Amino acid sequence: MTRSGLLALGLLGSALLVACSSGPVRRVSEPAASIQQLTVHANGSWSIDLRLQNYSSIPMRFERAQLTLAVDGEAAGSLNATPALSVGPESADVVTVPFQPDSSARMVLADVLASRRSLPYSLEGTISATPEEGKLREFKVEGKNTLSPVPGLDGVLR
Protein backbone atom coordinates (compact mmCIF):
# COMPACT_ATOMS: atom_id res chain seq x y z
CA MET A 1 0.00 0.00 0.00
CA THR A 2 1.28 3.46 -0.83
CA ARG A 3 2.10 6.07 1.75
CA SER A 4 -0.88 8.24 0.67
CA GLY A 5 -3.16 5.17 0.91
CA LEU A 6 -2.00 4.49 4.47
CA LEU A 7 -2.50 8.14 5.38
CA ALA A 8 -6.04 8.10 3.97
CA LEU A 9 -6.81 4.86 5.84
CA GLY A 10 -5.46 6.38 9.08
CA LEU A 11 -7.57 9.53 8.64
CA LEU A 12 -10.67 7.45 7.96
CA GLY A 13 -10.03 5.36 11.08
CA SER A 14 -9.54 8.49 13.18
CA ALA A 15 -12.77 10.01 11.86
CA LEU A 16 -14.71 6.85 12.70
CA LEU A 17 -13.23 6.76 16.18
CA VAL A 18 -14.22 10.39 16.84
CA ALA A 19 -17.75 9.80 15.48
CA CYS A 20 -18.26 6.78 17.73
CA SER A 21 -16.90 8.46 20.85
CA SER A 22 -19.30 11.40 20.80
CA GLY A 23 -22.09 9.20 22.26
CA PRO A 24 -25.83 9.43 21.71
CA VAL A 25 -27.54 12.73 21.07
CA ARG A 26 -29.14 14.19 24.21
CA ARG A 27 -32.41 15.63 22.96
CA VAL A 28 -35.03 17.22 25.25
CA SER A 29 -38.49 17.23 23.67
CA GLU A 30 -41.78 18.56 24.99
CA PRO A 31 -43.62 15.96 27.06
CA ALA A 32 -47.32 15.16 26.66
CA ALA A 33 -50.17 14.32 29.01
CA SER A 34 -53.31 12.32 28.36
CA ILE A 35 -55.97 10.48 30.32
CA GLN A 36 -55.46 6.74 30.31
CA GLN A 37 -58.48 6.00 32.50
CA LEU A 38 -61.23 7.96 34.22
CA THR A 39 -63.15 6.30 37.06
CA VAL A 40 -66.33 7.75 38.59
CA HIS A 41 -66.84 7.02 42.30
CA ALA A 42 -70.17 6.70 44.15
CA ASN A 43 -69.63 10.06 45.90
CA GLY A 44 -69.33 11.86 42.53
CA SER A 45 -65.55 12.31 42.64
CA TRP A 46 -63.33 10.99 39.87
CA SER A 47 -59.96 9.28 39.74
CA ILE A 48 -57.90 10.15 36.70
CA ASP A 49 -55.03 7.97 35.57
CA LEU A 50 -52.84 10.61 33.96
CA ARG A 51 -50.36 9.30 31.41
CA LEU A 52 -47.14 11.33 31.27
CA GLN A 53 -45.20 10.78 28.05
CA ASN A 54 -41.47 11.55 27.80
CA TYR A 55 -40.46 12.04 24.16
CA SER A 56 -36.88 13.02 25.11
CA SER A 57 -33.84 10.82 24.46
CA ILE A 58 -32.89 11.15 28.15
CA PRO A 59 -34.82 10.46 31.39
CA MET A 60 -37.10 13.21 32.75
CA ARG A 61 -38.39 13.70 36.28
CA PHE A 62 -41.98 14.95 36.23
CA GLU A 63 -42.47 17.26 39.21
CA ARG A 64 -45.83 18.95 38.61
CA ALA A 65 -48.77 18.97 36.23
CA GLN A 66 -51.21 21.87 36.27
CA LEU A 67 -53.90 21.17 33.70
CA THR A 68 -57.39 22.36 32.88
CA LEU A 69 -59.76 19.55 31.94
CA ALA A 70 -62.81 19.94 29.70
CA VAL A 71 -65.20 17.09 28.88
CA ASP A 72 -67.46 17.26 25.84
CA GLY A 73 -66.78 21.01 25.66
CA GLU A 74 -67.70 21.64 29.33
CA ALA A 75 -65.09 22.90 31.80
CA ALA A 76 -64.55 20.16 34.37
CA GLY A 77 -61.99 21.89 36.59
CA SER A 78 -58.29 22.02 37.37
CA LEU A 79 -56.22 18.89 37.54
CA ASN A 80 -53.17 19.39 39.76
CA ALA A 81 -50.66 16.64 40.39
CA THR A 82 -47.19 16.44 41.94
CA PRO A 83 -46.08 13.01 40.77
CA ALA A 84 -42.31 13.31 41.46
CA LEU A 85 -41.99 10.53 38.90
CA SER A 86 -38.95 9.65 36.78
CA VAL A 87 -39.75 8.45 33.27
CA GLY A 88 -37.15 6.87 31.04
CA PRO A 89 -36.26 8.08 27.55
CA GLU A 90 -39.06 7.81 24.99
CA SER A 91 -41.31 6.13 27.57
CA ALA A 92 -44.43 6.87 29.57
CA ASP A 93 -45.78 6.24 33.06
CA VAL A 94 -49.10 6.76 34.80
CA VAL A 95 -50.03 8.55 38.01
CA THR A 96 -53.51 8.42 39.59
CA VAL A 97 -54.93 11.81 40.52
CA PRO A 98 -58.07 12.37 42.64
CA PHE A 99 -60.38 14.92 40.99
CA GLN A 100 -63.46 16.87 42.05
CA PRO A 101 -65.29 17.80 38.82
CA ASP A 102 -67.59 20.77 38.36
CA SER A 103 -71.30 19.89 38.55
CA SER A 104 -71.84 20.47 34.81
CA ALA A 105 -69.04 17.99 34.03
CA ARG A 106 -70.64 15.43 36.36
CA MET A 107 -73.88 15.74 34.41
CA VAL A 108 -72.08 15.36 31.07
CA LEU A 109 -70.33 12.24 32.28
CA ALA A 110 -73.53 10.75 33.71
CA ASP A 111 -75.17 11.20 30.29
CA VAL A 112 -72.18 9.66 28.51
CA LEU A 113 -72.19 6.62 30.80
CA ALA A 114 -75.98 6.16 30.55
CA SER A 115 -75.90 6.29 26.75
CA ARG A 116 -72.62 4.25 26.51
CA ARG A 117 -71.09 6.75 24.10
CA SER A 118 -67.57 8.15 23.77
CA LEU A 119 -66.43 11.22 25.67
CA PRO A 120 -64.25 13.81 23.96
CA TYR A 121 -61.94 15.65 26.35
CA SER A 122 -59.16 18.22 26.30
CA LEU A 123 -56.24 18.97 28.60
CA GLU A 124 -54.39 22.27 28.58
CA GLY A 125 -51.76 23.71 30.89
CA THR A 126 -48.18 23.13 31.97
CA ILE A 127 -45.97 20.28 33.04
CA SER A 128 -42.86 20.98 35.12
CA ALA A 129 -40.10 18.45 34.51
CA THR A 130 -36.36 18.14 35.00
CA PRO A 131 -34.26 16.57 32.25
CA GLU A 132 -31.49 14.29 33.54
CA GLU A 133 -28.65 16.47 34.89
CA GLY A 134 -30.58 19.61 33.95
CA LYS A 135 -32.68 22.37 35.46
CA LEU A 136 -36.43 22.31 36.09
CA ARG A 137 -38.31 23.45 32.99
CA GLU A 138 -41.95 24.24 32.29
CA PHE A 139 -43.56 22.83 29.17
CA LYS A 140 -46.89 23.93 27.73
CA VAL A 141 -49.18 21.03 26.89
CA GLU A 142 -52.38 20.93 24.96
CA GLY A 143 -54.19 17.85 23.79
CA LYS A 144 -57.53 16.44 22.77
CA ASN A 145 -58.61 12.84 22.81
CA THR A 146 -61.58 10.55 23.44
CA LEU A 147 -62.46 8.09 26.19
CA SER A 148 -64.92 5.22 25.82
CA PRO A 149 -66.87 3.26 28.44
CA VAL A 150 -65.24 -0.03 29.41
CA PRO A 151 -67.59 -2.98 28.94
CA GLY A 152 -68.30 -4.71 32.24
CA LEU A 153 -66.82 -1.92 34.38
CA ASP A 154 -69.50 0.59 35.38
CA GLY A 155 -68.23 4.15 35.71
CA VAL A 156 -64.91 3.49 33.96
CA LEU A 157 -63.76 5.06 30.69
CA ARG A 158 -60.53 4.41 28.79
UniProtKB/TrEMBL annotation:
Database matches in InterPro entries: LEA_2 (IPR004864)
Family matches, as Pfam families: LEA_2
Database matches in SUPFAM superfamilies: LEA14-like (SSF117070)
Matching Gene3D superfamilies: 2.60.40.1820
Record PROSITE patterns: PROKAR_LIPOPROTEIN (PS51257)
Sequence ranges assigned to domain Late embryogenesis abundant protein LEA-2 subgroup in this UniProt record: 50-129
Name of the protein described by the UniProt record: Late embryogenesis abundant protein
Organism, as annotated: Pseudoxanthomonas indica
